[in-house]
C-alpha cells in the first residue's frame, strides 16, 4: 500500500516538473509553438474578422496599354488590382508634385499613353490616404493631392515616375520611384482571364470607360444572409438592451436610447438607418474621413469581403460602399448601394441593407453578351438623353431575387447610367435591353 502511494507521488512530482518545464519554454519562446499559425496577440478576434482597410479602399479596375491596345483586365482567381497595390508597397517614392491641372488635352494623352498600367479607383482618394494604405510614412506627411488613377509605365526603363490622375479636374501629379520593377506586375497582367478592349472617353462629367466591342460576362447566384434587428442593436448601441425603447408603425420598427441614438428598420424594404446624435465631430482631413467611415462600415458588416468604397463626397461628408463581383459593382434596389455613411455637426448617420451576399452557388443562368458602349450611347440619345446628361456610365451587376427562393439572388450584368443624380439601369432609362441580340 505504501509502495503504491509512493509510485503515485513520484508520478505527480514528475507531472508537475514536466508542466513547469513546458510552461517555461512557452513563456520564453512562443514562436516554437506558433510556427505556421496566423497569430496576432494585439488584435481581438472581432478585429481579425474585419476585412482590412486597404481591401475596402482599393482599385477596382486595371487598364493595360500593351503598346497596341487598351484593355480592361481581371483575374477571378487572383485579384490583380489588389495584388498590384501590395507590390507597390515595396516601392520607394519621392514627394508628388503637380505636373498640370485643368488641361483636358494633356490628360487625354496621359491616360492613353502606351506601355502603361492604370489602377483605377471608383472615387477620388488622397495621396496621404495612399501613403497610409501602403505604409509610406513620408507620403502621409506630403501635400494631400486628390486622385482616382495611378499610372505607371511598364516594359521601359526610361520613365521612372509614377503618376496620379484626377478625372474631375484633369490634374496629374508625379513622383520619382525607386526599388521598383514592372516584371511581377506584367506577370499578373498576363494571367488575366477577363480581357476586354476599352477606350477611355472624355465626356462632360469626366472620363468614361467605353467598351469598344460587345462583351460577354457571366451571371452569378448567391445565398443571402439576412440579420435580425437585434443583431444590429447589439453592435450599434453600446448599452444594455433594457435601455432600448422599441416602437412600431406598420413595417417600420424604431429603436431608441433616449434622444442620443436611434435605429429605424423598414421591414418591407429591408433598409435600416442608424443615427448617432452624439457623434457631432466632422472629419477635418481625407484620411480621417476614410478611417472613420471604414470603422463604421465594418462595424455594420464586418465580414463582407467584396465590400469596396464606391463614392466619397467631401463637400457633403458622405461615403458610399458597394459590393463587387469580378471587378464590377453590384447595384441593389436602394439608391445608396450597400452602405451610406454621413457626418455632420448634428450627428452621424448610417444607412444600409440587412441582406448581404454570403455564399456563391451554381447559377442556372446563361452568360450575357452586352452591347458596345457606343451602341448604348446611341440608344440613350434616341430616348432623348444628350451625352452631356450622362454623369456616369458603367457596367454593373443587377440584383434580382429568385421567385421561388427568397434567400437566393441572381446577379446579371447590364449597363448602369447616372442621370440627374439618379442611378438606373439602361433598361429603365430606355425601355430597351442592354444585351446583344
Automatic annotation (TrEMBL):
<dbReference type="Pfam" id="PF07435">
    <property type="entry name" value="YycH"/>
</dbReference>
<keyword id="KW-0472">Membrane</keyword>
<keyword id="KW-0812">Transmembrane</keyword>
<keyword id="KW-1133">Transmembrane helix</keyword>
<dbReference type="InterPro" id="IPR009996">
    <property type="entry name" value="YycH"/>
</dbReference>
<feature type="transmembrane region" description="Helical">
    <location>
        <begin position="6"/>
        <end position="27"/>
    </location>
</feature>
<protein>
    <recommendedName>
        <fullName>Regulatory protein YycH domain-containing protein</fullName>
    </recommendedName>
</protein>
<feature type="domain" description="Regulatory protein YycH">
    <location>
        <begin position="10"/>
        <end position="435"/>
    </location>
</feature>
Amino acid at each position: 500500500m505504501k509502495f503504491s502511494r509512493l509510485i503515485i507521488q513520484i508520478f505527480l512530482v514528475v507531472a508537475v516538473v514536466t508542466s513547469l518545464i513546458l510552461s517555461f519554454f512557452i513563456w520564453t519562446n512562443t514562436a516554437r509553438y506558433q510556427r505556421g499559425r496566423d497569430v496576432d496577440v494585439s488584435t481581438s478576434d472581432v478585429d481579425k474578422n474585419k476585412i482590412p482597410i486597404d481591401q475596402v479602399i482599393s482599385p477596382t479596375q486595371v487598364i493595360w496599354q500593351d503598346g497596341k491596345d487598351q484593355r480592361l483586365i481581371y483575374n477571378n482567381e487572383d485579384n490583380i488590382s489588389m495584388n498590384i497595390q501590395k507590390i507597390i508597397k515595396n516601392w520607394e517614392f519621392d514627394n508628388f508634385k503637380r505636373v498640370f491641372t485643368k488641361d483636358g488635352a494633356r490628360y487625354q494623352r496621359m491616360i492613353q499613353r502606351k506601355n502603361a498600367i492604370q489602377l483605377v479607383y471608383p472615387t477620388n482618394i488622397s495621396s496621404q490616404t495612399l501613403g497610409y494604405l501602403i505604409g509610406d510614412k513620408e507620403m502621409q506627411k506630403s501635400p494631400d493631392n486628390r486622385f482616382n488613377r495611378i499610372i505607371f509605365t511598364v516594359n521601359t526603363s526610361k520613365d521612372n515616375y509614377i503618376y496620379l490622375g484626377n478625372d474631375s479636374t484633369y490634374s496629374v501629379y508625379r513622383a520619382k520611384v525607386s526599388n521598383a520593377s514592372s516584371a511581377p506586375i506584367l506577370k499578373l497582367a498576363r494571367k488575366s482571364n477577363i480581357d476586354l478592349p476599352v477606350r477611355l472617353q472624355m465626356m462632360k462629367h469626366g472620363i468614361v470607360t467605353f467598351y469598344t466591342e460587345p462583351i460577354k460576362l457571366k451571371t452569378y447566384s448567391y445565398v443571402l444572409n439576412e440579420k435580425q434587428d437585434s443583431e444590429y442593436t447589439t453592435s450599434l448601441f453600446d448599452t444594455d438592451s433594457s435601455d432600448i425603447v422599441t416602437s412600431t408603425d406598420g413595417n417600420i420598427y424604431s429603436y431608441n436610447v433616449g434622444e442620443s441614438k436611434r435605429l429605424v428598420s423598414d421591414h418591407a424594404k429591408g433598409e435600416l438607418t442608424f443615427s448617432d446624435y452624439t457623434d457631432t465631430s466632422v472629419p477635418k482631413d481625407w484620411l480621417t474621413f476614410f478611417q472613420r467611415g471604414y470603422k463604421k462600415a465594418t462595424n455594420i458588416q464586418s465580414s463582407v469581403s467584396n465590400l469596396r468604397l464606391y463614392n466619397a463626397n467631401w463637400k457633403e461628408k458622405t461615403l458610399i460602399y458597394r459590393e463587387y463581383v469580378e471587378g464590377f459593382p453590384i447595384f441593389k434596389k436602394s439608391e445608396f448601394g450597400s452602405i451610406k455613411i454621413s457626418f455632420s455637426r448634428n450627428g452621424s448617420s448610417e444607412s444600409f441593407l440587412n441582406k448581404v451576399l454570403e455564399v456563391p452557388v451554381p447559377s442556372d443562368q446563361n452568360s450575357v453578351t452586352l452591347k458596345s458602349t457606343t451602341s448604348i450611347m446611341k440608344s440613350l440619345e434616341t430616348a432623348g438623353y444628350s451625352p452631356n446628361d450622362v454623369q456616369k456610365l458603367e457596367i454593373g451587376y443587377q440584383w434580382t431575387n429568385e421567385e421561388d427562393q427568397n434567400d437566393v439572388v441572381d446577379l446579371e450584368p447590364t449597363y448602369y447610367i447616372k442621370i440627374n443624380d439618379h442611378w438606373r439601369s439602361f433598361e429603365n432609362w430606355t425601355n430597351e435591353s442592354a444585351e446583344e441580340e
